[in-house]
Amino acid sequence: MKKIRKVLVANRGEISIRIMRTCREMGVKTVAVYSEVDRQSPHVAMADEAYCIGPAVAAESYLNIPKILDVAKRAGADAIHPGYGFLAENARFARAVLDAGLIFIGPNPDTISLMGSKTESRKTMMDAGVPVVPGARDALETVEDARAMADQMGGYPVLIKAAAGGGGKGMRTVRRPEDLARAFDAARGEAQKAFGDATVYVEKFIEAPKHIEIQIIADQHDNVLYLWERDCSIQRRHQKVIEECPSMVLTPEQREAMGAVAVQAARACGYVNAGTVEFLFDSEGHFYFLEMNTRLQVEHPVTEVVLGLDLVKLQLLAAEGHPLPLRQEDLSPRGHALECRINAEDVYNNFVPSTGQVTHLKHPEGPGVRVDSGITAFSEISRFYDPMAAKLITWAETRDEAIERMKRALLEFQIEGIKTTIPFCLAVLDHPEFRSGKFTTKFVEQYWDSLKAAGSADADLLEVIAAAVAYHQDQAGAATRAEVNHAPGRAEISPWKMRALQDMRRSK
Length: 508
Ligand code: MV4
What we know:
Layout: E1 6-9, H1 13-25, E2 29-35, H2 42-46, E3 49-54, H3 65-75, E4 79-81, H4 91-99, E5 103-104, H5 109-116, H6 118-127, H7 143-152, E6 158-162, E7 172-174, H8 180-195, E8 200-204, E9 210-218, E10 224-236, E11 239-245, H9 252-268, E12 273-281, E13 287-293, H10 300-307, H11 311-320, E14 336-343, E15 345-346, E16 352-353, E17 356-357, E18 360-362, E19 369-373, E20 380-381, E21 388-396, H12 399-412, E22 414-416, H13 422-429, H14 432-436, H15 443-471, H16 477-486, H17 495-507
Parallel strand pairs: 1-2, 1-4, 2-3, 4-5
Antiparallel strand pairs: 6-7, 6-8, 9-10, 9-12, 10-11, 11-14, 12-13, 14-21, 15-16, 17-20, 18-22, 19-21
Helix pairs in contact: 4-5, 12-13, 13-15, 15-16, 15-17, 16-17
């Protein structure tokens, strides 16, 4: 057992701050690293010490392994937390951290490497009796192999996937045998370009699945727990936007079955620390292993809130070699949690990144609200990094209350100078299919165009009402202004009217 006294957080933004918060509570010192454009960033101010590791471009700073290890040595850190993204799932990095005599707060390098290959992880899971999507065990060399495999699987539709895959790149749906050859070539080409590896394999295509993932935590003493599920089906182009715990569609029996399979999957790859097992969940309630994420995930807070746990604390304890301080039967989930990702994106302009300076910022507060933010007033949102500025998490006893609380908190969120995904989230939260809980990964594709149009019409009406309210200095002015501020279609509101509404609020 080796006590961790000082952690270097090899990341930036909200996750870096999230990790340092727990370190401080545990009496562990923190070291931040930052790029030249992040000198003023809040994660730097949060740390006990901070070191510049290079230029803005991530390849030369947040992905610079020798530089990060050099800082760890200079600062006397005894452990490194990689957060998510950047080096979090880089097996060479994890190996280099161990070789430098430091603790890597995550699974071992062999596990990271194994789960990084979709074909290798599939094989491991098949051998362990974990249900995977029906399909090939091995990579396919030729289109004839692919055709034989598709026939053997009982026909079309099938999906060709990149072995090195992830993020939906190098994926091609094939609905008719005559389209196979073209799709096979296209998938290989895209996989080569994206991953430098053209290897592909084939699976049965699951129509309109849900994306349900199970959080697991494992210590170094063979204890593995499943920490319930997250429903992450609300995604746009493979980027999650709203996540929740628990999922509306799982029966207690299904949850237990998926949890047991997730534990089985973790054991099959010698897992230690926090991880996530992703499943496709079909319309008949069958679930299939998709991949395992060997990191702490963006959406981990919904699990923390419902289970009353601190996952970063559990990660540190496990990394120190402690047995997990709880058993499966000790878990006491309560209520419902939602997370909305507040991205600096223009949802009315195809979600293009909205860069620039934040000119006004006030986070929502109050009962059942948690904000994990990586920005402050006057932060510069740069084009160099992920557009996620903050995460808004709400909790309540029931899902409906958690949704109403989320709407309240989104309207309370004051952020000016950049455009955000707040209007998008508000529109989704009121959609009947979202309310039903039965939405699938097709949701955004299916409904966003109509939501967007309806939102714009609402915003026109709100604008007229708000202007009238402002004119009469009505008590309701501030609240109406908040609605206008984030109404789907906010982009249509003229700046001078926004200004008038703001002035009105401030003069009260
Ligand atoms: C699938 C699938 C349907 N059938 N595999 C997308 C990202 C990659 N990691 C796996 N993905 C999918 N694999 C089979 N056999 C549908 C998807 C998929 C998806 C999965 C999870 C969340 C969102 C998604 C959106 C589109 C497609």
